Amino acid sequence: MNNPPRVLLLDENAPVPADRRVWYEALTLRDAGFKVSVVSPKWHYARRHEQLEGIDVYRFPLPSLGGIGGHLVEYAIATPILFAYSWFVYFRQGFDVIHAANPPDFLYLIARVFKWLGVKFVFDQHDAVPEACASRWTGIKFRLTNAIARWSERGSFRTADVVIAPNESVRRLALERGGVDPDRVFVVRNAVRRTDFRDGKARPELRRGRRYLVFYAGVIGPDDGLEQLVMAARHVAIERGRRDVQFVIMGHGDCLPGVKQLAARLDLDDAVEFTGWCQDDRVMADYLATADLCVAPDPKSPVNDLCSMNKIVEYMAMGRPVVAFDLNEARETAREAGAYVASNGHSDPAAMGDKILELLGSPRRRAEMGRIGRQRFNEVLAWEHQQANLLRAYETLLRRPAVLVA
């Protein structure tokens, strides 16, 4: 091809550029000379179409619905809309590759149509959906959702010309469950850039008059364990009588109203602050710079054991120690930068609260954990290290070199 390759990224689960992973993939491909377009939900963004940093971003309104019925309705609405937008982009400017992020895994159906026109398909597996079904539902709901999830995952693997996974655990699913050729599966970890939070400034007023600040930033959904964090905050503030610890929860999601109600019922309005979603990285950087430690309360479950959490990498980028439940990929990501709460088959919020207090009482240990985390981020985890694998995937896909031009 003499013209630059053209890529369409489909992202149903989060808006762009708020979805860092998809946005950084788009920027990396742009820097390698690709023409890139993105279609994603609109959510809190005002414009349905804009060009950001040389990338065309198209957005569509989509409700965020909870529960099995809500998810199915959401996907039933989103899939035909994404299909229609794909045709719109195809006729307006064309594309040679569809790069689809899951969930849902249904987007391979769109790719199959365009493959008849010679378009390649990249399946970017963010989540292991069958494991998510096992974590959320039981009985008939699990059997139904698991059957749909395995069927659509299998279709995605079989349709994909290249599969991208966020870690080695998910890569093994593509190899063992999907039967994908190992030469066509690439690990591109969730990451932030070295420059994203470098200007953060400690702001004592964020502690709201308290000595310590414990910080959470991320999605507030059914698998993220925010109820566990609120219960841990209750253990710290009420059962241990530690009113010198301020908890801050930054983010949004389906479970936010319920989590807020739980905090109010437990009389934690003064100890737990909910900031909502933050679009300004400078504000988030200030919270990270002020925090004494950060938390990843994701409970032990089949899906969370496989997940590489964005928030943990963000914490490490700012040199903050992490308290997390003992999950396989959480430990693999943070290593010595984390203090891990044993799950023993279930997640114990009181144990997490005690681990938080233990670490708050050890400033030297916190400093050393932060140093280790920042070093691991700079040397291994930063997005600058993930770009090469993304470009290798595209070299395999298109059988031509893909290199950054800047």
Describe this structure in words.
It is built from 14 helices and 14 strands. By secondary structure, the chain is α/β, with parallel strands linked by helices. The protein folds into two domains: 203 residues, 3-Layer(aba) Sandwich (Rossmann fold), CATH 3.40.50; 178 residues, Glycogen Phosphorylase B (Rossmann fold), CATH 3.40.50.2000. The longest helix is centred in the N-terminal third of the chain and has 26 residues. The mean pLDDT is 94.
User: Oligomeric form of this entry?
Assistant: single chain
The CATH topology of the largest domain:
Rossmann fold
CATH level-4 homologous superfamily of the largest domain: Glycogen Phosphorylase B
Which shape, going by the Cα principal axes?
Answer: globular
Instruction: Report low-confidence residues grouped into runs of 5 or more.
Output: none
Q: In this structure, how is the largest beta sheet organized? A: 8 strands, mixed
Q: Which architecture name of the largest domain does CATH use?
A: 3-Layer(aba) Sandwich
Q: What is the residue-averaged pLDDT?
A: 94
Hey, roughly how much beta strand do the residues contain?
15-25%
Number of domains: 2
Number of helices: 14
What's the CATH class label of the largest domain? Alpha Beta
Structural category: alpha/beta
The tally of strands reads 14
